[in-house]
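Lab notebook, bench 4. The sequencing result for the construct came back, and we need a structural model before the next group meeting so we can plan mutations. Quick request posted to the team channel:

Model the 3D structure of this chain.
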Amino acid sequence: MLLAGLTATFAIFFLAALRVTTRSRDVQVPDLRGKSVSEARTLLDDLGLTLRIDEPRRADPAVPADHVISQEPGAGFELRQQRAVRVRVSEGLREPVLPVVTDLPERTAEVTLAAAQVTIGRRAEIRSTEYSAGQVVSQDPAAGQRARTMTLLVNRGDPSVSVIVPDLIGSLGVRAAEILRGQGFRVAVTAEVPYPGLPPGVVVRQTPQAGYRILPSDTLMLEVSR
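Done. Here's the predicted structure in token form:
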């Protein structure tokens, strides 16, 4: 009985000591967000943890290059020593990759560039029968390069070709503008005016009026109901 008691006592003390030892190896993860990679690594080294950087790095205008954007596990989490904390690191405000807009209609190119956070710095124009009116003939810089602005060369169509302006009064302005722009014409909604009895967005006035002849390079101005 004495031997059994001693064995049980030893086991209890052993388990308690093992638990204390195990607990002593758990450390609290610090907040690494916004810190440089070297600062984060130093903090973790002091706690017996390691730093693991997830690739690829991510462009972030709010976080400087080589600084931590996010971490896993988060700050305050208890982690066993020698374990790794994974972080995503910023590469700073990097210029976007330019998409292909050559051969697209001008309006489609505008939407594509806006989605890629690229602005149109300048538009050069040609008049040719070899391309559709309003078609983007070329772009500079070329697709695949990195830049924030792009120059477009747009075909305005054969200057000798004119069309008769259709009657757009009473049509939905957004839809009319979309159809005409798709055919290479310039359309601008210049004003929204109160017009009792009409839902918003209906064309109430156009310039030039229906029946006039215009070139594809001319701008058709619309006023719609508010």
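Residues 106-155 form one domain.
Will bring this to the meeting.
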